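Many introductory courses stop at the sequence. We go one step further.
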Amino acid sequence: MAPDGGHYPVTDPATEETVGWAPEASPEQARAACAAAREAFGAWSRTRPEERAAVLGRAARIIRERLVPYADLARAETGATTATARAMQVGVAAARFRRYARVEPAEWAVVPQVNEAGPMGGAAVLGALAVRQPVGVVTCVTSYNNPWANPAGKIAPALAMGNTVVVKPAPQDPLSVYRMAEALAAAGVPPGVVNVVSGRDVAVGEAVVASGDVDMVSFTGSTAVGRRIAEVCGRDMKRQLMELGGKGAALVFDDADLGSAVAGIGTTFSFYSGQICTAPTRVLAQRGVYERLVDQLARYADGLKVGDPREPDTVVGPVISAEHRARVEAYVELGRKEGAVVVAGGERPPHGRGFFVAPTLLAGAANDMRVAREEIFGPVVTVIPFTDEDEGVALANDSDYGLVDYVWSGDVARAFRVARRLRAGGVGVNTVGRNMEAPFGGFRASGVGRDVGVYALHAYSEVQSIVWPG
C-alpha cells in the first residue's frame, strides 16, 4: 500500500547523510492496519502453538543468515558501532525469536475446592484449570535506541501467544523494523498478522493506540509519552505494558572492586552512547572511595574513542539526532550551573559532521540537582558522595524512577541486603549484565508490568479460569 504522506528521509547520525526513505502513513492508514490485524486474529489465534513456534524459529534463522546486511542498516540508522549492531541489536533480535520458538505449557491445574451446600447448589468438589489466552490485537510502539531487539522482544512473545500485532517504530530508524517484518513474512507469518506503520506525525501513533480494534499497547519510551498512552488506554480499559524511563543508581561501597565498577558504569558512555534506560547514570560513591572512583571514571571516559561507528576501534558513536545532541549538551551546561564539576568531556568532539557528544562525567553533584534526577539519555554520568549504607540507600530511592539499580561491594551479603532495599524493578550486583529469563520492568515512573522470558508470555496473554464439578 502506498503511504498517503509519501516518504521521508532517514538520517545516518554519524554522517548526516540519508540512509533511505521511510513510508509516511496517515492516521487513516494506521487505523486500517489495526483493522487488518483484527481480521487476521481469529485464524492466527487458532493455529496450534507448535505451528506458531515453527514460524518464529524460521524467522530467527532468516535474521541470523542476513545478520551482516541487517546490522549494517541498523548501524546506519542508529549510529551504533558495528559490534553493537551485530551482537546487541540484530543478534539479540534473532535470539528473542529463537527463545519463543518453543512451546511452553499454557494451562495449569488449580487446587480443587470443597464447597458446602448452599444457595449456589449442593455440596461439591470443584476442579479448576487456568488457561493463558491471547489478548487480541497488540500495538507495539518501539524505541529508537534498538530497532531490532526492542521490537523483537514484543513481537516474538505476542505472536507465540496467538496475538496479532501492529508495530509503530520510532520515526528516527524504522527501516530495520520493515526488514524484520519481511523476515517474518518469509518465515510464513500470514498477511495481517504483523503490520508496520511508520510516520513522523504524532497523530499516527495516537491512531494505533486509540483504535477500537486494539486490545493492548506495549510501549517502550519516555515516561511523558507513556503517561499519555496510559490515559488513552485507560478510557477503553486496554491492557498495557510500559517500559519507561530510568535514572539508574549505582551504589559503590568502599570495599568495591573499582575496576569492575568503572567498567560497568562506563557502559553509560559507550553502550548506545548512553541512550539506554538501564544505564547506571547516577553514581553514588561512598566517601572512602569517592575520589579514586571519580579519577578512574574520568580517565576511562577520556580514553574512549568517539567517532565513526564503522571504524573497528570506535567505542562511542553519535546520539540519534541534532535535536537530541542539543538536549544532552543543555543538560551538561545545566549541571555546571547547578554546581557540579565537569571532570571529563563537556565539550563537543571535533568532528565536522555527525551528532557526537563526548563522554562526560559530572562530579560533586547532589541528588536534588536536575542532572541527578532527570533522564538525560546520553553519555553523561553524575557522581554523588554518601557516608553509610542507610544514606546510600536513601539517596538511591530518592528518585521518580525505579528501573534498574546497581550495587558494587566486596561484601556479598551486604550487596544482596542493599539490593532488596532498593525500589527498582531490577538490581545488578557487581555487574551490569542481564539474565534474559529474569523479569524486566520498573517501579514508579519507570513503567507498568514485566516481560522477558516466560514473563512475556504472561504479559501478552489473558488468564482464563475453567471450573467444573469433580
